[in-house]
Design brief:
By secondary structure, the protein is of the alpha/beta class. It has 2 domains: about 170 residues, Rossmann fold; about 170 residues, no CATH class. Helices cover about 35% and strands about 15% of the residues. Strands 3-2-4-5-6-7 form a 6-stranded mixed sheet, with helices on both faces. The chain has a 5-stranded parallel sheet with strand order 10-9-11-12-13, with helices on both faces. Strands 1-8 form a two-stranded antiparallel sheet. Helix 5 packs across helix 6 and helix 11 crosses helix 12. The N terminus is likely disordered.
Length: about 350
């Protein structure tokens, strides 16, 4: 593919939004970064590092670090509450690394300690709520759903910001995953951003995603099949794993990037990186996508079906989203909306609106 050399700038990742939490040992080791995205070496190293995970091994970062209280959990179901010297928390982060055990701990051990209204923020795992539709884990049972409903209906709860929201309910608000750092192979300092207008790039969509064994990858497998057949005239399909730098170059060269969910429902971190690089993510509509649609320039399809994309669709999206990339003011606004600060202001505003004074 021949693409004119774009004008480039550096976009700093120093303050980019992220919900995911990682044990401190991940940040102390560069093995995951050096091994590259998804490589066997990187996966083996990450598995070893995860074996050292405990609730105590987490130092909250991103949105979690801004909350008054944090409930950190580990995959074996252990949980730990950080009160941070605050008696009456306005915001509480609930790590779901411990999956449903984290909800049980919060309901039975934490709620009784809360005297005043609060906002809950949950995330850092691919399980979806309130129903749990991630195919690697069993769906929530009736009693488990009832426990989540008890949390949601608690009169002290002002709002619940949830990563991987699978159903819209009162007080529940979708919160994007954002970027993911540890073990991803991603450069956490800065990336080169293209400001080449969407209309100046070939009108194509990039399909480059990992597919492994298991039901959770069937949707990506289906989309790859569409790119080879019905969409082949306007889709670039990458089947072999490429380096992170080559992957980002491909993303910058295409006006649109397919961000098909694998685990959970959230299309990020891929969608977040796509926007940071100056391209437009194509995502599927869900309760989670509502957070993207209200704040970010994303192209949305109802389902991954043959008629979801066409040359005419790409042209319409080019006209709709071009100002976000070509206009300096809109680009600056986009970078703001990719930041922790932007999403934290929304969380704080929900507390003020739901508990004035």
């Amino acid at each position: 593919m021949n693409v004119a050399e774009p004008q480039k700038k550096l976009f700093s990742f120093s303050s980019i939004h992220s919900v995911r939490q990682f044990p401190a040992v991940f940040f102390e080791s560069d093995a995951g970064f050096a091994a590259g995205v998804g490589s066997a070496r990187g996966q083996a190293q990450n598995k070893r590092l995860w074996s050292l995970e405990t609730p105590e091994s987490y130092n909250p970062t991103g949105i979690a670090a801004l909350c008054d209280w944090q409930v950190m959990s580990s995959r074996d179901g252990r949980c730990l509450l950080h009160r941070n010297g605050t008696v009456n928390p306005r915001t509480i982060f609930l790590s779901l690394r411990g999956r449903f055990a984290a909800f049980e701990y919060f309901k039975h051990e934490v709620l009784s300690s809360i005297a005043k209204p609060f906002v809950l923020v949950s995330g850092s795992e691919d399980i979806t709520i309130p129903n749990q539709v991630d195919r690697r884990q069993p769906r929530f049972t009736r009693s488990q759903k009832m426990l989540l409903e008890q949390i949601r209906s608690d009169t002290r709860l002002v709002a619940w910001f949830a990563e991987n929201l699978d159903e819209t309910k009162p007080k529940m608000v979708a919160l994007p995953t954002g970027y993911v750092f540890a073990g991803s192979g991603a450069p956490v300092d800065a990336v080169e951003v293209t400001t080449t207008p969407l209309s100046s790039r070939p009108p194509r969509v990039l399909c480059a995603h990992r597919i492994r064994r298991g039901r959770q990858w069937k949707m990506r497998e289906r989309v790859s099949g569409l790119c080879k057949k019905q969409w082949r005239s306007f889709a670039t399909s990458i089947e072999q794993e490429v380096s992170l730098q080559d992957f980002m170059a491909l993303m910058r060269a295409h006006p649109f990037v397919l961000c098909v969910e694998g685990g959970g429902l959230d299309p990020s971190p891929k969608a977040w990186l796509t926007l940071a690089l100056g391209s437009i993510p194509v995502i599927r509509r869900s309760a989670t996508s509502a957070a993207y649609e209200t704040a970010l320039p994303v192209a949305v399809v109802d389902q991954w079906r043959p008629n979801a994309l066409s040359p005419a669709t790409l042209q319409r999206w080019c006209e709709e989203f071009s100002p976000w990339i070509a206009c300096p003011e809109r680009r600056k606004a986009l970078e703001c909306r990719l930041s922790t600060h932007y999403w934290w202001r929304i969380i704080e505003a929900s507390y003020r609106d739901g508990h004035p004074g």
